[in-house]
């Protein structure tokens, strides 16, 4: 699903003047239409758009944010040309929640665009949509654990996993969340449990609705409390990739509004988002590969090593010298720790040890988590199953476009907030 979209829409050239400081908005436009601190959010109450000042720091919108946010940037950042930045969650705009949703680029992009235009603030008269670009997309797919305890165990194990240039950054506040490359301008990765986030969202919505009685908050509460929504979130492990414009461009894809809504491109590339998501998470999932046994069962590991690395000598006797050597390396990692052994071992020797252990069914992620705890650990590769054909509950009906919802019944606009 597409979980969040940020668009940059430049102003038309006739409203921009060139100065020594760069391209800036025409002062007459600023004086008559809006000021340089122009920013806000759009909600829909009883079918009417309500444009208000943004109540959150625009640069750090919380995951619970269910409105559409916009901000004027007057040529002061790397784009150099004045533009409006628009950020919205298409799933919440289209259906009132983001526990699951569509990954149809056209549907999701246009939900954000339509919600902005429905705000009726006349900005579209000044904007050049033909040159609009995608700042980033949050692309999210879900795995389901057998139960909530197993889901948390998987997140705990991920907190120790390092994967090449993809650096882990455990969340210091929430034990249910894990980040990688958090400060990257190409891709940011996140793994988290959906149910705790949903419960926090319900508490926040309940508090706000009790205070304001807004109908759009009542609708959101109705949606997130549906049995099928809560059931889907219960054991969900979400893998979210925030893909920036640089990520698209480095793969030969234009990060433009026109690209996102081009029906021919999407018809010829129906799996474009899963492919980009797989590429983003490639290093993380590579560290799980090869897990087929319990890493703490020393007898099973020793027996597997003897089967894999025995050698028949000319005398007819069987030598287990390599198996014993690899087994001692495995025991050292188990009792001393992965990082400690890595720091004390020649790099080539250590990499051979990892390859030998991976060959018998121990993944890099498992080895990184060895700490002497003899509890049974289910191999990660069996637990994390991203089934792209089962990202939606049975009976799910894709939502109509926002413009179609409005056309059918203007009162339904309350659904988009």
Structure explained in plain terms:
The protein is an alpha+beta fold. The chain folds into 2 domains: 2-288 and 387-416, no CATH class; 298-382, no CATH class. It has 19 helices and 14 strands. The strands form 3 sheets. It has a 10-stranded antiparallel β-sheet with strand order 5-4-6-7-1-8-12-11-10-9. A two-stranded antiparallel sheet has the order 2-3. Helix 5 (194-212) packs antiparallel against helix 6 and helix 14 (321-336) packs across helix 15 (338-344). The radius of gyration is 26 Å and the shape is elongated. The two termini are 18 Å apart. 38% of the residues are buried.
In terms of topology, how is this protein built?
Layout: E1 2-10, E2 16-19, E3 22-25, H1 27-32, E4 39-45, E5 48-52, E6 68-73, E7 83-88, H2 90-95, H3 105-118, E8 133-144, H4 148-158, E9 168-170, E10 177-180, E11 187-193, H5 194-212, H6 215-224, H7 227-234, E12 236-244, H8 245-249, H9 257-260, H10 263-268, H11 272-280, H12 282-286, H13 298-309, E13 311-312, E14 318-319, H14 321-336, H15 338-344, H16 347-359, H17 364-368, H18 380-383, H19 402-408
Antiparallel strand pairs: 1-7, 1-8, 2-3, 4-5, 4-6, 6-7, 8-12, 9-10, 10-11, 11-12, 13-14
Helix pairs in contact: 5-6, 13-14, 14-15
